[in-house]
Amino acid sequence: MTTSGGSAHPAIHEAEAFVRDWHRRLAAREETDELFATLANGIRLETPTAILRGPHEFRTWYDAGQHEPLADPRITGAVWEVTVTSPMHIQLTLTLPDADGTGAAGRQEWWVVRQDGGLRVRTIVVTSVVPQPVAMVAEPAFV
Q1: What is the mean pLDDT of residues 53-78?
Q2: Burial class of 108 by CB neighbour count within 10 A (0 to 12, 13 to 18, 19+)
Q3: Which residues, including other chains, have CB under 8 Å from residue 21's CB and lie 6 or more apart?
Q4: Residue 115 pLDDT exceeds 80
Q5: Which of residues 83 and 76 earns the better pLDDT score?
Q6: Would you state the pLDDT for residue 140?
Q7: Nearest CA to 106 among 89, 90, 92, 93?
Q8: What are phi and psi of 21, to 5 degrees?
Q9: What is the largest distance, in Å, between two alpha-carbon atoms of the chain?
Q10: Percent of the chain residues past pLDDT 90, beyond the cut
């Protein structure tokens, strides 16, 4: 099941609330142990500058204060696409708006899994949208 909002599927609402809570916690620089408890076994985090695997690497990265790519305040204006891929797995894709709100500035893809009776973060991929250079087309020479 996929939605961009408004669906009555309880897993979608639960997953959206879970990710929003994560953003709130990151912005507040909550203690590592609070976030650590919501990581799945085999957590993977990819940002434009790093790839982290496992809870230990995540903790080191977070404690070093490098969480800004995940704590992006533009989440409030993000377009959400949520896909329930199985009873245990949910994919959330957040497209973050650019400064004037007319395009996309980046994307966050979250994979959450139901584990030990609650949702856990399995994978987060943060990408930024980099404008592609415009190819110059040579004009034909007229003689």
Answers
A1: 84
A2: buried
A3: none
A4: yes
A5: 83
A6: 53
A7: 93
A8: -65, -40
A9: 76
A10: 37
Asked if residue 40 lies in contact with residue 120, where contact means CB atoms within 8 angstroms, the answer is yes
Give me 94's structure tokens: 């957040």
pLDDT bracket for residue 114 (50, 70, 90): very high
Q: Under a CB-based contact definition with an 8 Å cutoff, are residues 75 and 17 in contact? A: no
Contact yes or no for 111/85 (Cβ under 8 A) = no
Query: Cα(104)–Cα(6) distance, rounded to whole angstroms?
Result: 22
The pair of three-digit structure tokens given for residue 21, joined into one six-digit string = 């809570």
- Going by the DSSP 8-state scheme, the letter that residue 26 receives in this structure is H
Coil/strand/helix, residue 63: helix
Q: Is residue 134 classed as helix, strand or coil in its secondary structure?
A: coil
Strand positions, DSSP E, the chain: 2-3, 39-46, 51-53, 79-84, 89-97, 104-115, 118-128
With a CB cutoff of 8 Å and minimum separation 6, the contacts of 97 are 74, 77, 78, 79, 103, 104, 105
Q: Which of 83, 61, 64 is nearest to 12 (CA)?
A: 83
Q: Please enumerate in sequence order all residues whose Cβ is within 8 A of that of 139, keeping only pairs 6 or more positions apart, or say none.
A: none
Question: What is the C-alpha to C-alpha distance for residues 22 and 35, in angstroms, rounded to an integer?
Answer: 8
